[in-house]
Design brief:
Structural class: alpha/beta
Number of strands: 9
Strand content: 5-15%
Largest sheet: 7 strands, parallel
Distance between the termini: 100 Å
Shape: globular
Number of helices: 9
Helix content: 40-55%
Length: 274
Amino acid sequence: MNHINRGRIPGPERHRGAVTLRREAIPRSTADERLLDSRQRAEWKTKDAWRALRILSEFVEGFDTLADLPPAVSVFGSARSKPDSPECEMAQRLGAALARAGYAVITGGGPGVMEAANRGANEAGGLSVGLGIELPFEQGINEWVDMGIDFRYFFARKTMFVKYAQAFVVLPGGFGTMDELFEALTLVQTGKVTRFPVVLMGSAYWSGLLDWLRGTMEAESKIGPADLDLMCVTDDVDDAVRYIVEAEAALAAEQEALKETAAAQAEAAEQARE
C-alpha cells in the first residue's frame, strides 16, 4: 500500500551551534533566564560550573570568528520597524554608506532596522555581520547577513558589539536599543573604551530623551555638560558617516602624537644618561 508523505507543518526552529531544535524540543526558557534566576539557587553547585564553560565557549567563538573583521560600525534599532518605515529606509542607506566608506556593518541580525542596515551593507558590497540572541520569540538571522553568530548570553554578545566596532549608530528602537545606547555612553564616560563615536539618527525620535537628559539629569548635576557631547544627533546619513570617519582619523593622529612624544622622551632620557 502506497503512503503519501504529506510532511509536517513547519514550526519554530532554533540553532545552537551544530544542534538544531524544532517545535516541542525548543526549551520554554532561555539560557540567560536560567542563569539569572535566583530561585534556582539549588542548581548552582551542579549546573553553573558547566554554564561557565558554555559562556567561555561563546567568547571563544565570537573572538575567533570576528578577529579578522575589518573596521566596523555597530548599528542598533527596532526589530519591530516595518520595511517601509522611515527608520528602515534610513538604516538601509546608512548600511550602504558605511560599506562604501570601508566599514563592515554589525547588527543584532534580526528583522526591522537591523535587517535594513544589513541589506544596505550587503547590496553595496560590504561585509554584513549579524550577532543573534536566543529569545523566547524566535527571530533568526536575517537573509542579508554574510557572517552570523547566535549567542545564548546577552553579555557575551554585548562584548562583541563593542570590541569589534569603531562606532555605534543608534536608530529609533525600544528597550534593547536603549540598553545598547546607554551601555556605550557609560563605557565612554568612564573611560572603559577609547573615545568611541555614538551617533543618534532620527532627531525627532530622540528629542524628548535629549530634553530630559539636559533638563533633568544635567540640571540636577547627575551628568556633566560634556557628557551630552558624547552623542552626535543627525538625520543625514552622510553627516553620520563623516562624523565617524573624522573621529577615527582624529584618534589615530592623537595616538601617533603620543607615540612620537614617548619616543622623544625616551631619546632625551638616553642622552641624559650619556
